[in-house]
């Protein structure tokens, strides 16, 4: 059978990609988790976000470096596969799937919870089916349409955050909370412990997941050279929204004593600063944020499944690597993600949420290590101070800071991730006939795109690697 020659369509500009990243990050989550983080940090929520943004910044730099060398939709899976070993790359990709596959399900579950609260007489499963059908259909139809709808929803939710800030300013001028925005109390006050801030930072770090996921859209970017900039812009803009919203939230609510529910403070925060009408509108903004995250997360994980299918490590290979000839989307992978999302009919949010962070930390760790593996061990770029700083110090710092997050990871996430990884090892043993066969031999004989030049990995087939021409040349100062 001849290889399907259709390819992903390069239709995404810089800001469309940034919008997808922001949609994935869900900016309104700062209000949902405000109560939890405020308690953990002793009332310095914005400081926790600032620390988290710095921690994530080192890993974002590593993503920017690797996406220039391997502009593939496979992200951390491809980087590890091509710089270290195909088998290890598979396990990294498999681990990342735990995070990326579950997030669309979490969004479907949140929508179910919202709708059950508003329309209790309608069975929850109906809302899950309708939501998943719409999100799957949009992702199947067009990546460009997905990006446009996502951008609209992101603009709406950010507008709601701006309105909240304006209303909070009015309340502060009336003497509510700190009584002024010109105070350092949200950043530091007596009794704040560094360990408490770090604990809070480990929680909010996962709000930044999204800057990494946009690397899945590399093969659909109009200009793949914009990807490093898109990664940093997503991180900085998202971090700024979190910080500013957290600052005003903490100024108006120095503590959580007046909240009836601290596990999700968004509705009450909106009520206290703007009244019932604003509460309704603000919750609608949170609803829009969830849909935007659903669109972006569904799109990104389907690209990862597609690339793994193209490499032959997801079976049936021809189906996972299939691109619809008219829509230019990975049709089968999109439908599979939709099918998995339907599982949101029954589980609890707490159960699923406890499992999603394992894969993200695996991806972050190995992206940083991939920088060292490629630039230091393959390119031998360690002879100047700049090279040592760029390709050893920065990625090692990123890996080290990620290890701190590992230390604070919930036990349930470690257990679920360990079981998932064990399943992946068994599956890999099956694919390689007891590890006797090279995993690179599974890739489709023909590259799906003329830009594919073959990769440097040992045993790799070259069907996935999009080696950027001149990748060994020095990078722009933005990333270096």
UniProtKB/TrEMBL annotation:
Top-level taxon: Bacteria
Transmembrane region(s): 12-31, 43-67, 88-110, 122-141, 153-174, 194-218, 230-249, 277-306, 327-345, 351-376, 388-408, 414-432
UniProt-listed Pfam families: AA_permease
Annotated region (Disordered), positions in chain: 449-480
PANTHER family given in the database record: AMINO ACID TRANSPORTER-RELATED (PTHR42770), PUTRESCINE IMPORTER PUUP (PTHR42770:SF8)
Keyword terms, alphabetized: Membrane, Transmembrane, Transmembrane helix
Main location: membrane
Any one of the GO BP annotations: transmembrane transport
Subcellular location per the Swiss-Prot or TrEMBL entry: Membrane
Protein name: Putrescine importer PuuP
Domain (Amino acid permease/ SLC12A) ranges: 21-392
Sections of the chain in a coiled coil: none
Annotated membrane topology: Multi-pass membrane protein
Cellular component, GO annotation: membrane
InterPro entries recorded: AA-permease/SLC12A_dom, APC_superfamily
Source organism: Arthrobacter livingstonensis
């Amino acid at each position: 059978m001849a290889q399907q020659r259709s390819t992903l369509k390069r239709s995404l500009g810089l800001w469309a990609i940034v919008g997808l990243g922001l949609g994935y990050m869900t900016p309104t989550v700062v209000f949902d988790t405000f109560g939890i983080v405020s308690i953990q940090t002793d009332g310095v929520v914005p400081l926790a976000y600032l620390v988290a943004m710095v921690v994530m910044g080192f890993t974002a730099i590593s993503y920017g470096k690797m996406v220039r060398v391997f502009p593939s939709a496979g992200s951390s899976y491809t980087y590890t596969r091509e710089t270290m070993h195909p088998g290890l790359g598979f396990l990294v990709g498999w681990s990342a799937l735990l995070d990326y596959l579950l997030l669309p399900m979490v969004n479907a579950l949140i929508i179910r919870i919202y709708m059950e609260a508003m329309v209790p007489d309608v069975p929850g499963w109906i809302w899950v089916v309708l939501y998943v059908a719409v999100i799957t259909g949009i992702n199947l139809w067009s990546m460009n349409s997905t990006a446009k709808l996502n951008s609209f929803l992101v603009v709406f939710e950010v507008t709601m955050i701006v309105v909240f800030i304006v209303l909070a300013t009015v309340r502060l001028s009336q003497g509510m909370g700190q009584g002024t925005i010109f105070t350092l109390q949200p950043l530091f006050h007596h009794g704040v412990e560094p360990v408490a801030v770090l604990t809070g930072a480990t929680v909010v770090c996962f709000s930044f997941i999204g800057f990494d996921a946009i690397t899945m859209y590399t093969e659909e970017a109009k200009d793949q050279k914009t990807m490093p900039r898109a990664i940093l812009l997503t991180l900085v803009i998202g971090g700024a929204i979190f910080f500013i919203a957290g600052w005003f939230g903490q100024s108006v609510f120095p503590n959580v004593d007046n909240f009836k529910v601290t596990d999700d403070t968004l509705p009450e925060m909106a009520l206290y600063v703007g009244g019932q009408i604003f509460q309704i509108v603000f919750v609608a903004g949170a609803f829009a944020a969830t849909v935007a995250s659903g669109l972006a997360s569904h799109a990104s994980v389907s690209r990862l499944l597609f690339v793994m299918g193209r490499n032959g490590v997801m079976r049936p290979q021809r189906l996972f690597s299939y691109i619809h000839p008219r829509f230019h989307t990975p049709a089968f992978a999109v439908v599979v993600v939709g099918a998995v999302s339907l599982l949101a009919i029954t589980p609890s949010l707490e159960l699923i949420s406890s499992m999603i962070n394992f894969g993200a930390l695996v991806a972050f760790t190995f992206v940083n290590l991939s920088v060292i593996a490629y630039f230091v061990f393959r390119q031998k770029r360690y002879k100047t101070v700049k090279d040592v700083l760029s390709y050893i110090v920065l990625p090692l710092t990123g890996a080290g800071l990620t290890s701190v997050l590992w230390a604070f990871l919930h036990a349930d996430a470690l257990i679920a991730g360990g079981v998932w990884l064990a399943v992946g090892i068994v599956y890999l043993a099956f694919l390689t006939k007891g590890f006797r066969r090279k995993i690179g031999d599974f890739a489709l004989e023909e590259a799906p795109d003329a830009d594919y030049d073959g990769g440097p990995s040992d045993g790799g087939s070259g069907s996935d690697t999009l080696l950027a021409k001149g990748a060994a040349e020095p990078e722009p100062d933005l990333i270096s």
